[in-house]
């Protein structure tokens, strides 16, 4: 026990010395470690926590965009689709490297960026369609993303985006952070990117799941509920994360994810990520390569402006812009709210540069063959670990750079390892709801609608729109009354002025109202 205590004390002194040394350098002053009450090692842990929470985007985004068929000529062959997916894994990592590094170095904010979930689904399945069966070809769709990114960048550069964001009422802004937490927890409870506790139901839409087996087409539960081994492993990971957070242990998110991931990598168990199936064997063969770099061959620079005279193109451009203005901006403000950056005017330090970086990253994404980029709600994992400066985002970017060479490992993190952290983040993000004035229905009701609609509509932007609509509806009667009062007051003022003019005219004439003599 004595040696262990001495070792712990020595490591603590070494960490303190390292933090003090870095804080006194020019980099420490640039990142404002002192003013923001953070340290170098804390920022590194925060960046690693954010990366591990969002590393799933490497494989998920690549799979979604590859379902569009990419640049493969129809009918897309399996070989071409596999090459496209490998291209998109590298493209996703490369875009994250540049975007996170820019956010950290230029804006000095702990926000991580990656291809937006939801937008990539719209891009792949609605716009381009499965294997190119949609309304807009893949290459033209990339050009749409490029143009939308340029428009979004212009709005950000002119300050219009910041002004629009500051128009969002305080209650809705606070509720957005809590609503995103509920949304994130709901995603983490589902099967595709979570633990699978919640599943579909034809009567009630959702129900308790974690089934031993599910119907691949309908998702219906088979073999009994709460009998999924991977769910219980994920639940254990959640317990580890929550207990570490309760005890204030640094790196709580990292420990939960690593524990579940390492257990899931063992073959021959009921919780393995590599079952003895054709897909499991293929994934395990790729996993065993450990180190592998795949250069981008088909998606980089694949955009084309042919077909811009079609109405579908402009509808898609408008849709993407609307999602970016509301969804992405709302997410960034919510992350700033959680970090305690937002001031009384509704802004935060570095917001202008952050908006520029955020919008410019979408231009980069289109050039690499993907949909728009966005600030990720998983940034809250690093913020909860204490990340308060751009060093957190730089660490995330560095991790994504390493992922381009260790893709076999990082694309093998199972969803039931990531899901518990997403639920935990959602629980922590509910704190902002305490600041909503629930006793004031004018603020509380729009805030509640915002929070409820985000998970129930599976859309952050729909939640913000719903909250704003209720806010306006509750304010319209007051505005009408104020307008009527103003009109009545104005009319009284005009009437009074006319009376004064008439009296002045009467006093200037004779006693009988006629003009004075000599006039």
TrEMBL record:
The chain crosses the membrane at residues 88-113, 140-160, 172-193, 229-245, 252-268, 352-377, 389-410, 446-474. GO terms for molecular function: purine nucleobase transmembrane transporter activity. It is a multi-pass membrane protein. It comes from the Eukaryota. Signal peptide: none annotated. It is found in: Membrane. GO terms for biological process: adenine transport; guanine transport. Its main location: membrane. Keywords: Membrane, Transmembrane, Transmembrane helix, Transport. GO terms for cellular component: plasma membrane. It holds the Pfam family Xan_ur_permease. Residues 499-519 are annotated as: Disordered. Belongs to the nucleobase:cation symporter-2 (NCS2) (TC 2.A.40) family. Azg-like subfamily. This is Adenine/guanine permease AZG2.
């Amino acid at each position: 026990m004595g040696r262990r205590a001495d070792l712990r004390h020595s490591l603590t002194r070494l960490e303190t010395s390292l933090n003090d040394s870095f804080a006194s350098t020019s980099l420490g002053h640039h990142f404002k470690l002192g003013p923001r009450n953070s340290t170098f090692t804390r920022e590194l842990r925060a960046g690693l926590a954010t990366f591990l929470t969002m590393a799933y985007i490497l494989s998920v985004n690549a799979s979604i965009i590859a379902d569009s068929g990419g640049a493969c000529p129809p009918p897309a062959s399996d070989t071409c689709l596999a090459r496209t997916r490998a291209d998109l894994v590298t493209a996703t990592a490369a875009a994250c490297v540049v975007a996170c590094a820019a956010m950290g170095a230029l804006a000095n904010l702990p926000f991580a960026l990656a291809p937006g979930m939801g937008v990539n689904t719209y891009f792949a399945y609605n716009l381009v369609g499965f294997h190119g069966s949609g309304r807009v070809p893949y290459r033209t769709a990339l050009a749409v993303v490029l143009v939308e990114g340029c428009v979004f960048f212009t709005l950000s550069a002119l300050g219009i985006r910041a002004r629009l964001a500051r128009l969002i009422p305080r209650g809705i802004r606070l509720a957005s952070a809590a609503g995103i937490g509920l949304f994130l927890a709901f995603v983490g409870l589902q099967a595709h990117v979570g633990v699978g506790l919640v599943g579909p139901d034809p009567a009630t839409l959702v129900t308790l799941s974690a089934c031993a087996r599910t119907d691949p087409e309908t998702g219906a539960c088979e073999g009994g509920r709460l009998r999924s081994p991977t769910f219980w492993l994920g639940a254990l990971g959640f317990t580890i994360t929550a207990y570490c957070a309760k005890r204030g242990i640094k790196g709580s998110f990292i420990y939960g994810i690593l524990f579940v991931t390492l257990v899931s990598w063992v073959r021959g168990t009921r919780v393995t990520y590599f079952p003895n199936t054709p897909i499991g064997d293929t994934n395990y063969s790729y996993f065993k390569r450990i180190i592998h770099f795949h250069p981008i061959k088909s998606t980089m620079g694949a955009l084309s402006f042919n077909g811009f005279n079609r109405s579908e193109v402009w509808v898609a451009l408008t849709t993407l812009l609307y999602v970016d203005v509301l969804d992405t901006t709302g997410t960034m403000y919510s992350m700033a709210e959680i970090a305690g950056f937002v001031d009384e005017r509704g802004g935060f330090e570095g917001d202008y540069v952050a908006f520029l970086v955020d919008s410019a990253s979408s231009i980069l994404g289109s050039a690499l063959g993907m949909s728009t980029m966005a600030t990720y709600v998983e940034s809250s994992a690093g913020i909860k670990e204490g990340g308060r400066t751009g060093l957190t985002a730089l660490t995330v970017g560095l991790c994504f750079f390493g992922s381009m060479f260790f893709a076999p490992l990082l694309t093998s993190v199972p969803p039931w390892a990531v899901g518990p952290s997403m639920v935990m983040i959602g629980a922590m993000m509910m704190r902002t709801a305490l600041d909503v004035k629930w006793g004031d229905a004018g603020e509380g009701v729009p805030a509640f609608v915002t929070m409820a609609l985000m998970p129930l509509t599976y859309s952050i932007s729909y939640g913000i729109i719903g909250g704003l609509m209720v806010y306006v509806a509750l304010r319209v009667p007051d505005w009408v009354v104020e307008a009527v009062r103003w009109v009545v007051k104005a009319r009284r003022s005009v009437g009074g002025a006319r009376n004064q003019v008439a009296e002045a005219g009467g006093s200037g004439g004779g006693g009988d109202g006629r003009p004075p003599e000599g006039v």
